[in-house]
Write a structure and sequence with these properties.
Layout: E1 13-19, H1 30-47, E2 50-56, E3 60-66, H2 72-91, E4 103-107, H3 109-121, H4 123-126, H5 141-144, H6 155-159, H7 166-178, E5 190-191, E6 195-196, H8 199-212, H9 221-232, H10 236-239, H11 246-263, H12 267-274, H13 278-293, H14 298-309
Parallel strand pairs: 4-6
Antiparallel strand pairs: 1-3, 1-4, 2-3, 5-6
Helix pairs in contact: 1-2, 9-11, 9-14, 11-12, 11-13, 12-13
Length: about 325
């Protein structure tokens, strides 16, 4: 089953995780960590989101982000891409080092935020790096306790989700972190790999997400093929020809997947447009869907979708 599209709308709260390839290091030293936080601060000012909590581990990152008008996908694309380029220049390496696309759960504010905070800040304790969460420098725990001033951490916004007053929220946070864990974030109810919340919350947010990113009505097979051709470098003529081969088959598969995902174009209709049998496209799209569950090929699909949605394409929703 294909990975569901991201649920995105203004004011959404996400638990974001990003890991290094093959469990490799995302940060080699404190300078890397500081640079990552500096870039968060820059993108926070640019895209006007709130950073409610964070924890930077050696090989992965946890962020609690509440978005504004800009979708999470745009925020993370800028942050991860710019940091990767900086990291590669500094350490003399090439290529990406984050493991596939970041993961993000949409989190139900009122019920699960406290559990999420504890989960994020207890990471270094669970990893046996420190004995207490406030002993770890590279998380927002010290900011919550008033022991560090971080200009990019929206502590007041986070406190507002914990209690009616600042004093009550501060007490609630200390009790949350220093007491016994009765919440267990990982075991809290989730909807697929997308939502941490109950079904009513998930359905409402899905409707809001559709209003934020409406389906592309009237998207044609030709427009999809043009976008695939621009991204893959394989011409539309080749895609519709009798030519075979791995890259060509993969590109046709991408056209079928993206067309169905964005506009509900049936695979049979796309197959006929490509001059192929429906069973051929169905088999390949099924294989692609399984690969997406393993976070493979997501970058090229995201690039095709951006190509279709970009103003220069001339396509309007």
């Amino acid at each position: 089953m294909a990975r569901p599209p991201r649920l995105e709308f203004p004011g959404a709260l996400y638990h974001v995780t990003a890991r290094g390839n093959d469990r490799g290091a995302v940060f080699r030293d404190d300078r890397d960590r500081k640079e990552y936080l500096d870039r968060i601060e820059g993108y926070r000012a640019k895209f006007r989101f709130q950073l409610l909590a964070f924890c930077l581990m050696t090989n992965h990152v946890h962020l609690a982000i509440r978005t504004g008008d800009e979708p999470l996908s745009r925020i993370m694309a800028g942050l991860q891409s710019s940091f990767t380029q900086w990291f590669n220049r500094r350490h003399g390496r090439v290529g990406h080092f984050f493991q596939g696309r970041y993961k993000a759960f949409l989190v139900q504010h009122d019920r699960y935020f406290a559990a999420l905070l504890r989960y994020i800040h207890m990471n270094p304790v669970r990893a046996r790096i420190v004995e207490r969460p406030d002993d770890y420098r590279w998380s927002s725990d010290r900011s919550f306790r008033g022991r560090a001033r971080l200009s990019f951490h929206d502590r007041n916004a986070a406190f507002a989700l914990l209690g009616p007053t600042r004093q009550a929220s501060s007490r609630a946070y200390i009790a949350l972190m220093d007491g016994v864990d009765t919440l267990d974030y990982e075991r809290l109810k989730g909807i697929g790999q997308v939502v941490k919340g109950d079904e009513e919350f998930a359905l409402d947010r899905m409707r809001r997400s559709e209003r934020f990113q409406p389906a592309l009505r009237g998207l044609s097979e030709d427009r999809v093929l043009a976008a695939v051709a621009n991204v893959t470098g394989i011409s539309v003529e080749t895609l519709r020809s009798r030519a075979r081969g791995g890259p060509i088959a993969e590109a046709r598969c991408l056209a079928g997947y993206v067309g169905r995902r964005l506009a509900g174009i049936p695979l049979g209709r796309m197959a006929r447009h490509l001059g192929r049998e429906e069973s051929y496209l169905l088999k390949n799209v099924s294989t692609l869907s399984q690969a997406l569950d393993r976070n493979q090929q997501s970058d090229v699909i995201d690039a095709i979708i951006r190509e279709i949605r970009s103003p220069k394409s001339g396509f309007l929703d």
